Amino acid sequence: MTLDQWLLFVGVWFAAGLPLGPNALNCIAISAQQGLGRALWAVAGILMAAALYIILVTAGLGALLLANAALFTALKLAGAAYLIWMGVKLLRSPGPDLEQQGAVADSPIATCRQSMLISLSNPKAIIAYGAVFSQFISPAQPLLTQLAALAPTALAIVAIIYIGYSALGLGVRRLLSNASRRRWFNHGVGGFYIFAGAALASSEISSMRTAR
After folding, report:
1. Of 165, 174, 194, 206, which has the highest C-beta tally within 10 A?
2. d(Cα 171, Cα 161) in Å, to the nearest integer?
């Protein structure tokens, strides 16, 4: 994996984690209600869920790569299309209601467990993980070497994003409590999704033409 490819992965993965979904709202609410220390336990639960998603997705991608290279290429194009679709969806979305409550629990371990379950309760997450990871895995390079770069990077970005949401706490709630601000926030992230998906699809199509 080249430095340019890694930097593009970093940008796409940051964009994947920034929208105000259940994980972000959970961290914000717990931080506001119970403090940053408790919210960090929620981040730990989210990281556990992310690690599980990465294991499942990369195992599936590896098996598919070994079975059929052409089908793997088709999956990469489908993943790029999915990124574009997510971008369009974000452009049309006003954003969630920030008054949702976090996973209030009696103990830090319970907060961690509940936050992990909240993260795992989204069945579309594994599709998103597969869509992004498939774009940056090359059949011409050893799979484990590529995963050694992608997986830690992805987990580090997940940690940075949700620690950031936790640290900002009430500040994020106030900043994005206005529907117009949430809409523009989604527009910015959605626009990046569309750009990244189109660029990745174009790159894959160019590679296919060159191979011929």
Report:
1. 165
2. 15
Burial of residue 130, with CB atoms counted within 10 A of its CB: 0-12 exposed, 13-18 middle, 19 or more buried: buried
Q: Quick one: tokens of 184?
A: 């523009």
Q: Which residues are within 8 A (CB) of 119 and not within 5 positions of it... i.e. 6 or more apart?
A: 22, 23, 45, 46, 49, 50, 125
Q: Delimit the domains of the chain by residue range.
A: 24-211
Q: pLDDT digits over 138-168, tens only? A: 777 887 888 889 999 999 999 999 999 888 7
State how far the Cα of 73 lies from the Cα of 4, in Å rounded to an integer.
20
Three-class secondary structure of residue 117 per DSSP: helix
> How much is the CA Rg of the chain, to the nearest whole Å?
18
